[in-house]
Amino acid sequence: MAKLKSWFGYGAAVLVLAVMFLAPFVLFSRIGRMVRQLGLRPHPKFSGGQVVRVLDRGGYQVAIAAPAGPVGPLEWGPRFIQVSWSPVAALPDTVDERLDLDGRGRPQVRLRFQVPRDPRQPLTGQVEVLDPRSRPRREACMMPCKAG
Amino acid sequence: MTPSPFASVPLLSEALTLGFASGSACLASCGVLLLPWLTGMRRGWRGTCGLLGIFLGGRLAGYLVFGLGVGLAGRVADLKGPAGLLVGGVSSLAVAGLLGVQAWRGLKRRDVGCPVARGRVLERRYGLGGLALLGLLTGLNLCGPFVAAALRAAQAGGPVQAMAFFAVFLLGTAIWMLPLVLAGAWRRWEPLALVARLTQAILALYYAYFGTVLLLARCHHGR
Amino acid sequence: MADNRPLSPLRSWPRAGLLALPIALWGLVMMGPALSGRDGTAKLTAFLAEAFMAVLFLLMLRTGQTHRWRKVFFITLGFLFPVGFIIELVRLRGSMSIPVEHLIAGDTPFCFMVIPMTVIPAALNRVLIFPGSILPTASNPRAVATMVSLWLVATLVLGKAWCAYGCFFGGLEEGFASIRRRPVLKRLNPVFRYGPWAVLVTIVLLSAASYAPTYCQWLCPFKAVTEFPEITNGQTLLQAVIFASLFLGLVVILPLLSKKRTQCAFFCPFGAFQSLFARISPFRIRIERSACKDCGACSRACPTLALDAGRVLQGAPRDACMRCGACVDACATGAARWHLQGTRAPSERARLLFLYAGWGFACLFGGTIIASSLASLIHLFR
User: Fold this and answer.
1) Host domain of residue C312
2) Which of these, C125, C126, C145, C127, lies nearest to C135 by C-alpha position?
3) Which segments of B74-180 does DSSP mark as H helices, in order?
4) Helix, strand, coil fractions of chain B, as percent rounded to 5
5) pLDDT tens digits, residue range B158-185?
6) In chain B, how many H helices and how many E strands?
7) B-chain residues within 8 Å CB-CB of A71?
8) Domain-embedded: residue C146
9) Is the omega angle on the peptide bond into residue A144 within 30 degrees of 0, that is, cis?
10) Chain B 73-132, CB below 8 Å of chain A: which residues?
11) Do C329 and C337 touch, CB atoms closer than 8 A?
12) Domain identity same for C70 and C127
């Protein structure tokens, strides 16, 4: 019995060493693939939600996502709708958009902002609520609005 | 024409379904508070079942009072507005106070020799009452499922029906709470009870902050 | 027959050099990616870092002491990591704070501390409650898949010893704990040993209920020296105050006064989480009762209060033991010793086998962090 335990003990030590020295060559990639296969996705309140509509503006596109934000029993914070403009290089110096966020044919908000050419410059803009039934929000878009 | 005894069955089955469907959210929000409390009291299986019953009793009391109110009023005030912020803020601060005192008593008692009998008296006086109060306060947590139940109960046709709706709704959510009885399995392991008390202390701070923010939002809303 | 002799400090250089050779070769392998690149600075710092690790390992074998040399690596890692991290943040964003657009773009590096909080939401809804990316990207190489792989390997290889050979935060408090010769605070309330478990339970429950990484949002002391959300309102200001206070209290002041790793012993939830896997590793510390004089040197040396008089009597430290080797180094009679579970291996053999695995991981992870941080520092001053 003592001999068997000893075999197991040394075997475990060899296994640990094998895991360690094989890790960079075999294990990391396999485990990474397993993690990918789990099908995890970032919570929409962090990633901005799924894009439900894309508006073509000629040179650039405007992607509107589904409403996202806290829904759980102890989740708190504002719900939001993420709007993305791309590609940045094709944007005019000033963007002035009236957006139909819910797809019912009437614009709910008007967004105006200057496009900073340096990505490290903060993005500031103005949000005007057009639909009186929409609850006014200080931040109606994903960039931090420091004015309006 | 005598009303059929089965007239309220569709309403009650709706309540049960809503409660069961919402139970995971209730478990998540109540479990945060209940699990450390039950673990800290170290009562074993039967004792923990009894404690859970006391908690659910407190919750039922809160639901019935609320059901009576919405049934009489026939409508539900804007629960996400100032009223909701006030109720949420006050109940969160009260929960924070409860947790804080429960944690303090549990940790302090360790320093005082081994007054087992005295400890039990304290626990009996405060722990059980505190648990019922905790149930009442968590019952006033204005989460999505509760708001949905309140809206439906307001349309139930009267205070009795609304109270019945809430009672059955509670039953649906209570099924999800049963796994919390497992907290009684580790009665003999003192470190676990210590961890539970320390957890309550940290949660007390969290709920104190949460309640304060809600009340500040209420004050800001009122301007 | 068990080896009761004290670890002999008279080890020959040739023997130590021969036994250190595998680690030196491993260091060369770790340098490979840097050597194959074009950045001369990266090549130099990779060489310096792996040479540093190899020399420390050699000294461990030569002197028979583990903790003394491990500490040098660990403190170096603890101080260089935030330096390199902050330099990179400032280079990429212009500040240490995270703008909200970076959060939403999934550019936040995934930290291993988040792992316990993500388990329940991931298991129930396949949702990651963290503003990061699942797979590595150009702007975020520290993605979920990468860090989870590292963590899993570390857990299989080290178990709880991650806290002494892997964690790039622990070196800070170990450094502050090493400053004074004698502690000012000699008695710490043992109740607080359960603090890490309480924090772990709290953050797991709250994260499951709120679908947000509660520890990162409210309780991480190391946000003070890495990155934190931009201060734009009262809440973010309060968060910053909490981070700074916890860092000053638990990582600087208490370790300085008590000479213990108080953040690890009393607060860190990841340490508690890793304690769950403490038994995976077959490498343990044991107290041989027949040789023990109950002098208490091992308990005084233990940085995380895993050993006290009661545990010495039982012959083994708590699951909080991080295999740092401080107790073994402090024991004058050789009663505190390394042990390979199930075997009667001599202490030195068990230690050597453990160090190959533990130091191998340290070279892979900590060594490369030291190299990249040094490179960032050199680039900064050029």
Assistant:
1) 283-341
2) C145
3) 82-108, 116-122, 128-139, 144-154, 159-177
4) 85, 0, 15
5) 888 888 899 999 999 999 999 998 888 8
6) 8, 0
7) 144
8) yes
9) no
10) none
11) no
12) no
Confidence of residue C155 (pLDDT cuts 50, 70, 90): very high
A6 reaches C (C-beta below 8 A): yes
Predicted TM-score (pTM) of the model is: 0.88
- Model confidence at B75, pLDDT cuts 50, 70, 90, reads low
pLDDT digits 0-9 by tens, B22-70 = 888 888 888 889 999 999 888 888 888 999 999 999 999 988 888 888 7
Q: In what order do the strands lie in the sheet with A125-129?
A: A94-99, A109-114, A125-129
Tell me which chain B residue has its CA closest to the CA of residue C208.
Answer: B28
Q: Phi-psi bin for A139: left (phi > 0), alpha (psi -120 to 50), beta?
A: beta
ipTM of the complex: 0.87
Spell out the residues 6+ positions from residue B219 whose beta carbon is closer than 8 angstroms to its own. none
Structure tokens given for C296? 């208490």
Tokens at residue C65, please?
Answer: 């002491």
Helix (H, G, I), strand (E, B) or coil at A62: strand
Contact B86, B218 (CB under 8 A): yes
Residue A68 has what DSSP assignment? B
Distances (CA, A) of C118 to A42, C110, C307: 11, 11, 31
Q: Are residues C34 and C142 in the same domain?
A: no
In a 13 Å sphere around the CA of B217, the CA atoms on its Cβ side amount to: 21
- Residues of B with Cβ-Cβ distance to A72 under 8 angstroms: 25, 28
B209: in domain: yes
Cβ(B26)–Cβ(B100) under 8 Å?
A: no
What tens digit of pLDDT does each residue of C92-110 get?
777 777 766 677 677 788 8
Mark which of C251, C280, C309 sits at the end of a domain: C280
What does the pLDDT look like over C299-341, one tens digit per residue?
A: 999 999 999 999 999 999 999 999 999 999 999 999 999 999 9
Give the C-alpha separation, A39 to A16, whole Å.
29
> What residue numbers bound the domain in which B48 lies?
9-222
User: Rounded CA gap, C300 and A59, in Å?
Assistant: 70
Strand partners, A112: A96, A126
Residues of chain C found within 8 Å of residue B196, distances taken between Cβ atoms: 198, 201
C185 and C166 inside one domain: yes
Q: What is the mean pLDDT of residues A96-116?
A: 84
